[in-house]
Design brief:
- The structure holds 2 protein chains of 2 kinds.
- By secondary structure, chain A is α/β, with parallel strands linked by helices.
- Chain A has 4 helices and 5 strands; from the N terminus they run E-H-E-H-E-H-E-H-E.
- Chain A has a 5-stranded parallel β-sheet.
- In chain A, strand 1, helix 1 and strand 2 form a beta-alpha-beta unit.
- The two termini of chain A are 21 Å apart.
- The model of chain A has no long low-confidence stretch (mean pLDDT 94).
- By secondary structure, chain B is α/β, with parallel strands linked by helices.
- In chain B, strands 4-3-2-1-5 form a 5-stranded parallel β-sheet, sandwiched between helices.
- In chain B, helix 1 packs parallel to helix 2.
- The longest helix of chain B is centred in the first third of the chain and has 14 residues.
- Chain B is globular and about 50 Å long.
- Classes of the chains: A alpha/beta, B alpha/beta.
- The interface between A and B is medium-sized, with 17 and 19 residues.
Chain lengths: 116, 138
């Protein structure tokens, strides 16, 4: 039963993205196949060199770089959303696969879930 | 009308009462499902949804107390109600065990809710025939 965890909100403004990440990590911890999909403003999670200290938060980059170690199968980003936010392979963190957000993508998974 | 097969549900509530409609939509669904002969395996509160498990919410008397309504439903139908421990601790929802562990001045988890990890959600997804999410929608 493979699951695609969707993150569609920018980091730092809301807590749901972090909670979505915890959901994905939890699935992986129980040997349930899980991947992350960033779309809309959520693709900003994948921007290099985030400095969240100024607003009293920890950068989400470290959490994301741990994803493969925790057994997350793939980190996927909506190609069109990345273009909207000016993100390309030079500004994205490592290990991100650009995909088209279409029915074919969702067909690869049994379930999708948002944290909120 | 052909009789439909019986389903078992895990319900995930991520929207808080009084700031979202999620808890009452979920309760309406749960009541309808049970009436139709289906079973609710468990209810998992995540994110802001954990506020539903507060024993201290005291809305005006002419408004529905959604925490109380949900507690009654869970007790009547012997459905486990689980608040995610990480979400709950961050938001000040604790039972007596966590109160002692973190040396907090009070415990406020409403009976019969329990506190446990995301593993409860993972297990629910595996065991139930369907998992439904009730979000705040913002």
């Amino acid at each position: 039963m493979s699951t695609l965890i969707m993150i569609d909100q920018a980091p730092y403004g809301a807590w749901t993205g972090r909670e979505a990440l915890d959901m994905a990590f939890s699935l992986a911890a129980f040997d349930q196949p899980a991947s992350l999909f960033f779309t809309g403003a959520g693709v900003n999670w994948l921007r290099q060199n985030q400095e969240a200290g100024g607003i009293g938060q920890k950068s989400v980059e470290k959490n994301l770089s741990a994803a493969p170690i925790f057994g997350i199968e793939a980190i996927l980003a909506d190609r069109a959303a990345c273009e909207t936010y000016g993100l390309d392979e030079n500004s994205l963190i490592e290990g991100v696969t650009l995909v088209d957000a279409d029915a074919a993508l969702l067909n690869d998974y049994d379930h999708t879930a948002f944290a909120g | 009308m052909a009789e439909t097969a019986s389903e078992t549900f895990t319900l995930v509530i991520t929207g808080a009462p009084y700031s979202s409609q999620a808890p009452q939509t979920a309760l309406g669904f749960a009541q309808a499902a049970v009436t139709a002969g289906h079973r609710i395996d468990r209810v998992f509160l995540y994110g802001d949804g954990v506020h539903l498990a507060s024993a201290l919410s005291a809305p005006p008397s002419d408004e529905t107390n959604w925490s109380e309504e949900w507690s009654r439903f869970l007790s009547e139908h012997s459905v486990p109600g689980v608040a995610c421990i990480a979400s709950a601790l961050r938001r000040g929802l604790v039972n007596e065990t966590e109160q002692k562990r973190y040396e907090l001045p009070a415990a406020n988890l409403r009976t019969p809710f329990e506190i446990a990890g995301l593993g409860e959600w993972v297990e629910g997804r595996i065991k139930s025939t369907r998992t439904l999410y009730f979000h705040a929608g913002d």
